[in-house]
Write a structure and sequence with these properties.
The complex is a heterodimer of chains A (about 600) and B (about 450).
Chain A lengths: L5 H26 L2 H10 E6 L6 E2 L5 E13 L9 H8 L3 H14 L5 E7 L1 H10 L6 E11 L5 H4 L2 E3 L2 H6 L8 E3 L2 H5 L1 H5 L3 E7 L5 E4 L15 E3 L3 H10 L5 E7 L4 E8 L12 H10 L8 H4 L8 H11 L9 E2 L13 E2 L1 H7 L2 H12 L7 H17 L22 H8 L6 H4 L13 H13 L2 E2 L5 E4 L12 E2 L7 H13 L16 E7 L7 E8 L6 E7 L9 H14 L5 H9 L6
Parallel strand pairs in A: 2-10
Antiparallel strand pairs in A: 1-8, 2-3, 3-4, 3-5, 6-7, 8-9, 10-16, 11-12, 11-20, 13-14, 15-17, 18-19, 19-20
Helix pairs in contact in A: 10-21, 13-15, 14-20
Chain B lengths: L1 H4 L3 H4 L2 H21 L14 H20 L3 H25 L1 E3 L2 E7 L2 E3 L1 H20 L6 H20 L3 H8 L1 H7 L4 H21 L2 E4 L3 E4 H23 L2 H32 L2 H10 L6 H17 L10 H4 L11 H33 L4 H25 L17 H19 L7
Antiparallel strand pairs in B: 1-2, 2-3, 4-5
Helix pairs in contact in B: 3-4, 3-16, 4-18, 5-6, 5-7, 6-7, 6-17, 6-18, 7-8, 8-17, 9-17, 10-11, 10-12, 11-12, 14-16, 16-17, 17-18
Classes of the chains: A alpha+beta (about 600), B mainly alpha (about 450).
Chain lengths: ~600, ~450
């Protein structure tokens, strides 16, 4: 064999390996995108630019909610070098143990990516820290936007704006860990409008994750779009006054402008200053508020479900008139054998029954509606009657969400036949079993917003707009849904006797709400006194004013305080006077309310 | 013929080899400029920077080249034994007084410069091997002579192993190509490739688990041994059926020998990886086969692959690759320099570099073949083998198809010893080639 032929074998081997390399290169560089993607992950970073969150103004364009900056102290483990940890701890205000724990945790998360070392440092503290921060490479401040409540009112209504939790992050990929989100109230409902659109900036980073330059001269960058400012329907002055009057009481105030459905005030008491839940003290304050036995975080105006008591007699009257079970002249004797009553009267017509809040009268009215005699069986008859009654009641918004824009509302309970079937069994109940709902007691549950809405329906003589807080999103105005009236199914004419009676409740001697009188304003209202054994009764008042062309409809609920006329009525009167005249004519009335304390047992 | 015999080095120099080499050095320098770039040192002649220092080395190599080209070829032949011995002494000395860099004692530190004797050992061993084979002439067929030749390689390789520097030792294995050209049995090459294939299969099967009848779940290595035995059985039957009776005995013996060898080798591979290799070496093997979940072990190679992948067809352009620019690949101006070529010059540029290397090796083989002197031919093949082994291991490593073994890419990787070593290899070859007509040794 000629050995010189072996050069071809050797050359062949060499060329073969060369081809293998070229094939491998082709795979890595051209055929596969994996490695390109991996390089991009390593070298490119998307920096999010946070838009400023929309501000919130009241109906008079008074600024309610502004933004302010707060700082998170971040650490990127890879960028740190040895430092004087004792001095650092003193500067930042954490313990050595805490520092060690946080850094361990940060390392476990990522050496190259930043983790939070200390959250929510107020700007004044941060200014002091940032002066020294150059001594500690790898540590830097990340600015966050938090809310600044200009007037310290409307905590429940405005809602909480706080850091996202894992559930929020999962639900919407707009958010990144550490981002803030509206958790409740207006902040949560209008989150998408308020938050705006994040911008992004793509940069190249080096192996230590230091930013070096922008990618492709910023061709892929997008600018942030600020969130829309909101104008809400709240009257800040009225809201503040209502909150002031409700101090030291448990309960709620809801005021609505009947001609639009705009909520003028919505108070749950006890409340709190929303600024307490912002910034460095949030954690501590939140703990105090959430463990308070009076539940200040609980929004009674939307989530409180109460028996409405006598104010419900207005609804009964209107339905009975509409469906011809009574006329305004119908008289019924005050038979106190079945159901108790109070005051001196014996054989009232409708107006008298409303003024005196006659229980037997409305027991009989509802009996007529429920026992219509369609079936011979009392039980079957009551089922039919209750079913149609339920439908009528719901048209007043009870047992529904009222299509309001406020979140977290509990819609209450308007019993229907299947509800009682569940309690007593099918055909095991009749009107005689369930009559206490006729006077707004028993299983009937409504919330304060629904009570105020009832006042608005009566003020409007037959219809309501979904009660809402949004007046304008940016400059776009109000969503169409809130500009369409909803009828309650009762003709306007039937309201005349009811409204007249409600005026006399306040103005006639012997009316139950004499304390709600205001010189020069025709106020219409109805008291309610809801049994609350063994504690004192809940005091309820529903009213609107003035009688013609009403400007405000209002419900006040004061828990465990006594008669509706004694506490809820005068509070309503003060609010109405304040709203309509912007003044208080009798400071003694005001002082009486401010001095009252009803904080339960 | 007179011109050719005149000894005018300019006329007889193989300019194409020279040009390819120059092109590689130029590409290498540009790559170093980019891979070792720091904003503080941008000037080409900034001698504090890596690219500046490399420029000095290139200059020194040019002077060495001029000297070597003007040295009589006869000198190299006489010099081969002495240089071989001198470098051997240096290899021993470096183990004693060398400076430890990265766990290996392979550098002499002289002032701010360091020198790596193993880079020169490749050259001196090539000269020594050429001298020895040329001495023995046709006697290279004898087993004793071959063993002596083997010893010439094994002595320096052994000392280098002690440093330890596995990469350079592997380069010494490349001398088998040169010996093969001189008559060494091709079975050695076949056995070599067989060993590589067996190693791969043994590692893969050793890492997997099979369910065996009667024995339950066991390492896949046993399955591999079983398959090998069955294959041998089939060969045995084939031998009985298809070969003439007089060859049967011999063939049966080969099948049996191959079987025992393969079984033993496969088992040894597994044993070796589990019990002999150091943990970081074992991890490098596992990384290669994608069997490692430790991100730190795979960090270097994964980033190198990402950099190359990011290059695409045409690359990001000079100084424009973010992986290279921001130092994502450790050792990117030395052993991993091919990753920055991949990122900045893309598939086309990388292929061009591989093409240049192939052209250089094939050209050197062509030069070797046209020598009338056996010394020059053996030396030429040795040079080709050394360069081939370097690119095989280095580029294979960076592309993720060979384990991570620290070895420079010729003419590209930053470092004076490496560049000088290759310059000396090439220039001696060019000188020997230039006087091929005037001598007959």
């Amino acid at each position: 064999m000629n050995l010189s032929n072996r050069r071809y074998i050797l050359s062949g081997i060499i060329v073969l390996f060369g081809l293998i390399f070229v094939a491998r290169l082709f795979y890595l560089q051209v055929a596969s995108d994996n490695w390109k993607a991996k390089a991009a992950v390593l070298t490119e970073e998307k920096i999010r630019i946070y838009p400023s969150r929309g501000l919130i103004y009241d109906r008079e364009s008074e600024l309610l909610v502004a933004n302010r900056a707060i700082y998170d102290l971040m650490v990127t483990p890879r960028q740190t070098s040895e430092f004087d940890s004792l001095a650092f701890c003193e500067l930042v205000g954490i313990s050595m143990n805490e520092l060690r724990e946080k850094i361990d945790k940060a390392v476990r998360y990522s050496r190259y990516k930043a983790s939070v070392l200390k959250k929510q440092i107020d700007p004044s503290d941060y200014a002091r820290i940032s002066e020294q921060l150059h001594k500690y490479p790898g540590f830097f401040g990340q600015v966050r936007t938090v809310r600044n409540y200009q007037k310290g009112i409307g905590a429940h209504l405005l809602g909480d704006f706080a850091e996202t939790n894992p559930k929020d992050l999962k639900k919407d990929n707009y958010y990144r860990q550490g981002d803030y989100i509206g958790k409740s109230g207006i902040e949560s409902v209008y989150e998408e409008q308020l938050r705006g659109i994040k911008g992004s900036k793509y940069v190249l980073v080096d192996v230590r994750n230091n930013i070096q330059e922008s990618l492709s001269e910023g061709d892929y960058d997008t600018t942030a779009v600020s969130g829309s400012d909101l104008t809400i329907t709240i009257d800040a002055e009225l809201q503040a006054y209502a909150e002031k009057l409700m101090v030291n009481k448990l309960g709620s105030v809801v005021a609505i402008e009947p001609s639009t459905g705009e909520i003028l005030a919505l108070v749950s008491s006890p409340g709190y200053n929303p600024n307490l839940l912002v910034g460095a003290q949030r954690g501590k304050n939140y703990k105090v508020l959430s463990t308070d036995s009076l539940k200040p975080l609980y929004n009674r105006a939307l989530q409180g479900q109460y028996r409405p008591g006598s104010i419900f007699k207005m609804v009964q009257s209107l339905i009975a008139l509409e469906h011809d079970f009574i006329t305004p002249q119908t008289r019924i004797s005050c038979n106190r054998g079945i159901i108790g009553c109070h005051g001196a009267h014996s054989y009232d017509d409708l107006e008298g029954a409303i003024i005196h809040s006659c229980n037997p009268y409305f027991h009989q009215v509802m009996k007529r509606m429920v026992e219509q005699g369609e079936e011979t069986s009392r039980f079957k008859d009551s089922r039919l009657g209750l079913a149609s009654w339920n439908k009528h009641i719901k048209r007043f918004g009870f047992g529904t969400d009222l299509r309001t824009d406020l979140p977290g509302m509990k819609s209450g309970n308007v019993p229907d036949p299947s509800y009682y079937d569940g309690i007593y069994g099918e055909l095991a109940w009749a009107y005689s079993t369930i009559y206490s709902i006729s006077i707004g007691e028993g299983e009937l549950l409504v919330n304060p917003l629904q009570m105020a809405n009832l006042a608005a329906i009566i003020a409007n003589r037959g219809y309501y707009y979904p009660p809402h807080v949004i007046r304008s999103i940016g400059n776009e105005g109000k969503p169409e849904a809130f500009r369409t009236p909803i009828s309650c199914g009762v003709k306007e004419e039937h309201f005349t006797p009811v409204v007249n009676a409600m005026q006399k409740v306040i103005e006639q001697p012997g009316g139950t709400a004499r304390r709600a009188r205001i010189e020069g304003i025709e106020v219409c209202g109805k008291t309610g006194t809801v049994q609350n054994d063994p504690l004192p009764d809940h005091s309820v008042f529903m009213s609107f004013a003035p009688k013609e062309n009403p400007q405000i409809a209002i419900s006040v609920y004061v828990e465990s305080s006594g008669f509706g006329g004694t506490w809820a009525a005068p509070i309503s009167a003060l609010l109405i006077e304040k709203y309509l005249t912007d003044s208080i004519s009798d400071p003694r009335k005001e002082q009486r309310i401010l001095d009252a304390v009803f904080l339960g047992p | 013929m007179t011109a050719q015999r005149s000894g005018d080095i300019r006329k007889n120099l193989d300019w194409s080899t020279f040009a390819i080499t120059l092109a590689l050095v130029a590409c290498g320098w540009v790559s170093i400029y980019s891979a070792a770039y720091t904003p503080e040192h941008t000037a080409i002649f900034d001698f504090k920077s890596e690219h500046g220092k490399q420029l000095i080395w290139i200059g020194i190599c040019a002077i060495i080249g001029l000297v070597l080209l003007n040295t009589e070829g006869e000198f190299f032949i006489r010099f081969s034994v002495i240089s071989y011995v001198v470098v051997l002494v240096l290899l021993i000395l470096v183990l004693i007084i060398g400076k430890k860099v990265g766990g290996a004692r392979s550098w002499f530190g002289i002032g701010s410069f360091s020198i790596q004797p193993s880079e020169f050992a490749k050259t001196t061993t090539a000269l020594m091997l050429a001298w020895f084979i040329a001495q023995t002439g046709s006697k290279f067929k004898a087993l004793g002579t071959r063993l002596q030749a083997g010893l010439i390689l094994l002595i320096p390789a052994g000392f280098i192993m002690l440093q330890p520097d596995a990469g350079t030792v592997l380069v010494f294995a490349g001398f088998i190509f040169a010996m093969y050209r001189e008559g060494l049995s091709g079975n050695l090459l076949i056995a070599g490739f067989g060993a590589i294939i067996l190693t791969i299969v043994a590692i893969l099967s050793g890492a997997s688990v099979f369910t065996y009848p009667f024995a339950g779940e066991q390492s896949g290595i046993y399955m591999m041994l079983i398959v090998l035995t069955i294959l041998a059985g089939l060969f045995f039957l084939g031998v009985r059926t298809f070969t003439l009776p007089r060859y049967r005995k011999k063939n049966n013996r080969i099948v049996l020998l191959a079987l025992v060898g393969a079984l033993g080798f496969s088992y040894m591979v597994n044993y070796g990886i589990e019990d002999i290799l150091k943990p970081h070496q074992r991890e490098r093997i596992y990384v290669l086969f994608g069997m490692n979940s430790n991100p730190d072990a795979a960090y270097n190679i994964n980033n190198a692959k990402a950099a190359i992948g990011a290059g695409g067809w045409t690359g990001k352009g000079f100084m424009n690759g973010p992986m290279t620019r921001y130092k994502f690949v450790p050792e990117q101006h030395t052993d991993f320099i091919f990753s920055s070529i991949g990122e900045e010059w893309g598939f086309l540029g990388s292929t061009l570099v591989i093409g240049l290397f192939l052209a250089l090796i094939l050209r050197i083989i062509a030069l070797a073949e046209r020598q009338r002197s056996q010394f020059s031919r053996v030396y030429g093949y040795a040079v080709a083998s050394i360069i081939f082994m370097h690119i095989l291991i280095n580029i294979g490593m960076v592309l993720g198809i060979a384990p991570v073994i620290g070895i420079p890419l010729p003419f590209f990787s930053y470092g004076g010893s490496s560049l000088m070593g290759f310059a000396i290899l090439i220039f001696i070859m060019l000188r020997l080639d230039a006087e091929r007509y005037s001598v007959f040794r």
